[in-house]
Amino acid sequence: MKFFDTHCHLDFQQFDKDRDEVIKRAKDKGIEYILNVGIDVESSKKTIEIAERYDFIFASVGIHPLDISDFKLNDLREIEKLAKNEKVIAIGETGLDFYYSKENKDKQKDFFVGQIEIAGKYNLPLIVHQRESKDELIEIIEKIKLPEKVVFHCFCGDKELAEYCKNKGFFISFTGILTFKNAKDVKEVARFYPVEKIMVETDAPFLAPEPFRGKRNEPFMVKYIVEEIANIKEVRFEEISDKIFKNSLSFFKDENDN
Ligand code: NI
After folding, report:
1. Cα 40 to middle of ligand 1, angstroms
2. Whole-model pTM?
3. What is the DSSP secondary structure assignment for residue 30, as one 8-state letter?
């Protein structure tokens, strides 16, 4: 079986001591591809550095909505420059997150729109982060031209948002949250969301799936999320893992290379 961890943060300091071992362990355990996702300018640069050292790791560049405070809108030009690197296959993560504060709503929206434009200009998939921001996010999406490929990462929205994403043809990707016993709503979304539009991610170092919950997450653990989707959808593990792997390939890698 082949797996594609479509979203993780191996550039974070949680991996400073053993980054290469973590990457090797992923490869040894059947992780075919990894997409590392930047959260600000420095993190995006580091992401590219890691991707340049390993042929099976790719990079996404962007500024996360919770990390915009130190940046000016003009700094997105820096992200745009990085987007031209050949290991960059997506823009993000970007989006809106009003969980901690609603004070910088307008600034978050500006950064989101700016990154949607970069993704459109370079024909790159867009990785969207959403938390407590459904209505504002939909408002922007309805107004602006989106790139062809959009994924709602770490999907933990409600059924209504899932229906909306489904109607729009967006992809959603599931993290270890899906394996948590109390994640009833997310499990329900996994049950009805079309399998052709599902991907998986660890979002490492956070959100380790069961049976590793509470530990540091890393890319090889992505298979436990696939296994949970197989259980929820009542299909064979091999079958669903093959489909999800192919979805991820066509979403992120089709036009770029191979
Ligand atoms: Ni993330």
Report:
1. 11
2. 0.96
3. T
Say how many Å lie between the CA of residue 255 and the centre of ligand 1: 24
The closest of 229, 166, 250, 218 to 5, measured between CA atoms, is 218
Q: What torsion, rounded to 10 degrees, do the Cα atoms 242, 245, 250, 251 define?
A: 140
Name beta bridge partners: 128.
Answer: 94, 152
CATH number of this structure's domain 3-252 = 3.20.20.140
Q: How far is the CA of 152 from the centre of ligand 1 (A)?
A: 11
pLDDT in tens, 186-208: 999 999 999 999 999 999 999 99
Please give the distance, rounded to the nearest whole angstrom, from the Cα atom of residue 222 to the centre of ligand 1: 14
DSSP output for 152-169: E-S----HHHHHHHHHHT
Span from the CA of 154 to the centroid of ligand 1 (angstroms): 8
For residue 146, the one-letter residue type is L
Query: 103-145, pLDDT tens digit by residue?
Result: 899 999 999 999 999 999 999 999 999 999 999 999 999 999 9
Parse the chain into domains and list their residue ranges.
Answer: 3-252
- Rounded to the nearest angstrom, the distance between the alpha carbon of 54 and the centre of ligand 1 is 20
Above 60 in pLDDT, residue 257?
A: no
Give residue 103's pLDDT: 86
Q: How many whole angstroms from 217 Cα to the centroid of ligand 1? A: 12
Q: Is 198 in a helix, a strand, or coil?
A: strand
Per-residue DSSP letter, 1: -
* SS3 assignment, position 245: helix
